[in-house]
Each structure stands twice: as C-alpha cells, then as structure tokens.
C-alpha cells in the first residue's frame, strides 16, 4: 500500500496516571505480549516518575520508552523541567511534543513546539509531534489550515534528514478523552493532508516513509477500521493505554488490518 512501509506504531500515553506498582504491572503485561507484537513498534509513555521503573521492566525487550514532555535547554536553572539529554539518560527513545493538553493547559505554542522538537532531535530522541484542531476550528472549516500552521511553525527549519526521524500524531482535540473518535474518513482526510505537506516540503521518499499516528478515543473496537486507512500508521492512545487488555487489543486489531494488506 502506498505510503505504508512499516508495521503498526502503537504508543500509550499514560498522561498523569499510575503509581510505580501499577506502572510495573502494566509494562510487564505489554512485554509479556511481545511475541505477538513483533511487527509493531510499541512505545510506553509513562509520567516522569515511572520512567525508571518502566525502563527496568522493558529492558531487553523491543518495547520502547518515551516521555511526555521536555524542555529545550540541556541543563540549568529551570525548576521543574526535564531536558532531552536527561531523557536519553533515563532510557527514553521517544518524547511527546506539543500534546494538545500541553498547548491548552500549559501555554505551549507552535514556537515552543519547534524548540522542543529540535532539542529532542539534537539529543537523538524521536519527537512525536502532536497536531490537531479544536472543535471551533473544525466547525469553521479551518481544520487543514490549522494543521498547516502547526506543521509549518512546529517543524520550522527541521532538515529533511531530521524529519525522517520525526513521528507526527494527529489528535483532533474534540476527540481526546471524549469517547468521540474521528470517523476513519475524517481522520484519513487530515492524515493524507499531513503526508502531502511533508511531500511538498521534503519530497516523496520522506513522505512515503513518514509515520503519522492518529489519536483521540482509540479503543480496540475502532482501531481496525482506522488502521485500514492508507495514511494511518498507528495510534497514540490515552485512556485505553491504561489497561493491558485494551492497549494490546488495539495493537492486535491494527496488526490484523496490517496483515490483510500484505
Ligand atoms: P484518549 O485516547 O484518552 O482520547 O487520549 C488521546 C491522547 O491524548 C493520546 O495522547
């Protein structure tokens, strides 16, 4: 299928949830399922406090570790912040950048997203750059325009070589934590647009290999038809990633759809 070269990419954003025992148990369930997830890229994104615990649990497996946020300076007097080199040191391979909750509740802008994405890349982390429109923008017919702004500013001066390491996650804000998933058609329209923007800026090779995730109320019951869409390469899962059963259920459904494409 054009534009899809890899197995499903499934990331669980645990947000501000789970103590150390729960984190260990959940990570263990995912690691135990590894033999059936071989074709998936699986990433667990716990809160900072559980990074070390989850790192220890996934060590030696193919399950990767990610963080939910970072600051763009490497070190210094920035109370409460964590840098990209610190995340590397803590065993992270991935980091979320510009999640809509950070944009809406913590004042992140496309400018800070850009600084964070570049800091992540410089440190050798893969930034998962989140974009998405709010309901008012969708209702006003401004979805694609808003996505374009977020991509243009958020990825400003990121080189083609670096862009090949970036994962983009489309998360319509009105679908996050609401139980209201974008329909496969709605998600595909935006995901195809994102790939098209990457194609225009970086060329066919980069666009065809780009990993573009969908996020927003993904569950086992809706992941199969979403993954069947051409430009949905996997999922950034919130609520449903807090249970092994539902997170692994999503991965299995994506693998089922992926298997049918071969
Ligand atoms: P939900 O899956 O809970 O809607 O959250 C999506 C999300 O924000 C993942 O980053």
Account of the protein in words:
This protein is an alpha/beta fold and 262 residues long. It has one domain: Alpha-Beta Barrel (TIM Barrel), CATH 3.20.20.70. Helix content is 45%, strand content 14%. It has helices at residues 20-32, 51-58, 84-89, 100-105, 110-122, 135-139, 143-154, 160-163, 184-202, 204-209, 220-227, 244-261, and strands at 9-13, 41-45, 64-67, 94-97, 126-131, 167-170, 211-215, 234-237. An 8-stranded parallel beta barrel has the order 1-2-3-4-5-6-7-8, surrounded by 6 helices. α1 (20-32) runs parallel beside α2 (51-58) and α5 crosses α7 (143-154). It is globular. The mean pLDDT is 95. The chain binds 1,3-dihydroxyacetonephosphate (13P). The site of 1,3-dihydroxyacetonephosphate (13P) has 14 residues, from β8.
């Amino acid at each position: 299928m054009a534009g899809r070269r890899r197995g499903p990419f499934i990331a669980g954003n645990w947000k501000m949830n789970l103590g150390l025992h729960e984190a260990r148990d959940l990570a263990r369930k995912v690691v135990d399922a590894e033999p059936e997830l071989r074709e998936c890229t699986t990433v667990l994104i716990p809160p900072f406090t559980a990074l070390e615990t989850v790192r220890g649990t996934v060590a030696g497996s193919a399950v990767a570790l990610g963080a939910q946020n970072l600051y763009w300076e490497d070190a210094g007097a920035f109370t409460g912040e964590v840098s990209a080199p610190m995340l590397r040191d803590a065993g992270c391979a991935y980091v979320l950048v510009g999640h809509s909750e950070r944009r809406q509740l913590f004042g992140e802008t496309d400018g800070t997203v850009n600084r964070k994405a570049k800091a992540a890349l410089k440190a050798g982390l893969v930034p998962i750059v989140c974009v998405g429109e709010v309901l008012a923008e969708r209702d006003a017919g401004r979805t694609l325009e808003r996505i374009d702004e977020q991509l243009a500013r958020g990825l400003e001066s990121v080189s083609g070589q670096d862009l090949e390491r970036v994962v983009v996650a489309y998360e319509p804000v009105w679908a996050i934590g609401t139980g209201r998933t974008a329909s496969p058609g709605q998600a595909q329209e935006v995901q195809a647009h994102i790939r098209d923007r990457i194609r225009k800026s970086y060329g066919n090779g980069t666009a065809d290999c780009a990993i573009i995730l969908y996020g927003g109320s993904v569950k086992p019951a809706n992941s199969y038809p979403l993954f069947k869409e051409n430009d949905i390469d996997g999922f950034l899962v919130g609520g449903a990633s807090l249970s092994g059963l539902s997170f692994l259920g999503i991965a299995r459904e994506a693998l089922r759809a992926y298997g049918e494409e071969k």
